[in-house]
Amino acid sequence: MTKSVSTSVTSIYPWNYALQLWHSRQQPTRPVIGMSWYNQPVSATQLREYLTCCGLDVVEAFRAAEWSGYFENQLPPLFPLVMSFPLHTQLLLSDHASQLAVWLRIVSCQVRVNQALSPQHSFDFSIHYYASDSEFPWVRILGYQLEQLVWECELAFSSSSKEVFPKEVVEQRQALFGQATQSVESSYNVGRWYLHTTQAKAFSQLVRDFHPAHLSNVMAKCLGYQRATVNAVWLLSAALSYLPLPRYPIQIQSYFPSPAYVDSVVELKATQGPQGHDFRIVSAMTPRLALGQLVALH
Questions:
Q1: How do residues 32-55 score in pLDDT, each as one tens digit?
Q2: Which InterPro entries match (predicted)?
Q3: How many angstroms separate the CA atoms of 127 and 76, rounded?
Q4: At CA 54, angle to CA 247 and CA 164, rounded to 5?
Q5: For the whole prediction, is pTM greater than 0.85?
Q6: Burial of residue 122 (number of CB atoms within 10 Å: 0-12, 13-18, 19+)
Q7: DSSP-H helix ranges across 65-196
Q8: Closest CA to 142 of 125, 156, 129
Q9: All domains of the chain, ordered by start, with CATH?
């Protein structure tokens, strides 16, 4: 029987909350609103545009390696977020969310991939929005293939244009994703690239991101930024294209204390460990644009 597609924003009813509790590793915070999206096939065109935007075509050596995870029959770990991005945007713009949601920027992205993601199977998405007075608003996205939970993501948001570091807030929910492996100190420079305005806008168009600060310098300055900023998911996706993936299941933890600006050069520095990498993205303008960790889970 074919499932129906639902993209309407609905209030959370007790049975929705019970279903989420069933799939969670601990009792979750009660969500405010949520939505579901069923039978979404992987678009070959969208995948090709994503690979082009994120520079994955420049890491052929990594892709050829057995342990990289970039095989023709597997999806990049952040691609389900690209597929579901318009849905969480719809949640933030709904009447149930904060009135300031349109100005929010991503300050944390936590992803867990339980197994290799297949481009041959459709995704079922379950998305919930959370908010309280004591912490950043956040969105949790669950991705299913063949009725198995294969992918999960949490995005935390802030309306501030200043440096924000929500690590302490995110660590309160760390058990949902498991503990990270301690890495070995072995720092090295990995990559350096230019955040071109055209590419930044191409990615925003790909994921249907209409944040004012990503669209123009004028709107960005009205929100307190120096000039137009780039989507944090694009910054993280480009960084991951330089790092070989460990074996699944994997966990990606990333924090974006400062916004990344278009038409600037950024550098990726990494520390290799036995199970993965610690990394940071820096530029001459901002000491720390992003900090993160890519590790294999036991």
A1: 778 888 899 999 889 888 888 887
A2: HotDog_dom_sf
A3: 20
A4: 85
A5: no
A6: middle
A7: 79-92, 167-171
A8: 125
A9: 33-296 (3.10.129.10)
